[in-house]
Amino acid sequence: MDHKEAYKKLDAFLDNEIAPALKAGADAHIKNCVECSAELEKLVKQGVYLKAAGEVQVPPNFRAKITEALEAKKAGNGILSIWKLIPIPAAMTFLILVFSAYMVVAPVAYGMNNEKMKSHTQEMTANALAACFTGSVFAPAAFAEFCSACTQNVCTCCEEGENICGKTAK
Questions:
Q1: Rounded to an integer, what distance in angstroms lies between the CA atom of residue 120 and that of residue 117?
Q2: 119 in a domain, yes or no?
Q3: What is the mean pLDDT of residues 158-162?
């Protein structure tokens, strides 16, 4: 019997639950293996300590408390807690705010020198943010329009030769 197999069967060997055909091989291995014989000795000591400890008296309502706790946990698993959902909208809000900030700052940061475009971008930003912060049902549409208009502004500036995005006008 190899070491791994014998080590796994130490409990069964100690309790005389090992198959008779394997008992001689396990016995021979344990006598020759320092690690397995030490582990078997620990298991024997554990058994002695457990027998010496005696029976533990549990309170009469112990089973009822355990059953009640299990039932409460089982009943709570079907309901999705609102606290578990908070990180998702918070993360999405953060991403939208970061993206919006980029869309507002990008034309200025990348050198939009056209005053008409700057004022148009500022007006559009104010309208989109007002729709978003007032809780309007049109907020998603306002945000999408805002993103589209920002992209168009950058492309228009490129077409006019301001070369914001690094491409040459055709």
A1: 5
A2: yes
A3: 55
Q: Give the integer Cα–Cα distance in Å for 105 and 40.
A: 72
pTM of the model: 0.35
Task: Name the residue range of residue 134's domain.
Answer: 84-159
Query: Is pLDDT larger for residue 2 or for residue 30?
Result: 30
Helices (H), 9-138: 10-14, 20-32, 34-53, 62-77, 82-85, 87-109, 115-133
For 35, residues 6+ apart whose C-beta sits below 8 A from its C-beta are 3, 7
Residue 111 domain-assigned?
yes
The conformational region for residue 34 under phi > 0 = left, psi -120 to 50 = alpha, else beta, is: alpha
Compute and round to an integer the Cα radius of gyration of the chain.
Answer: 37
DSSP-derived letter for residue 112 is -
Q: How confident is the model at residue 114 (pLDDT cuts 50, 70, 90)?
A: low
**How many domains does the chain fold into?**
2
Residues 6+ apart with CB under 8 A from 154: 106, 107, 110, 112, 164, 165
- Work out the pLDDT band at 164, boundaries 50, 70, 90: very low
Question: How far is residue 139 from each of residues 79, 136, 170, measured CA to CA in Å?
Answer: 30, 5, 35
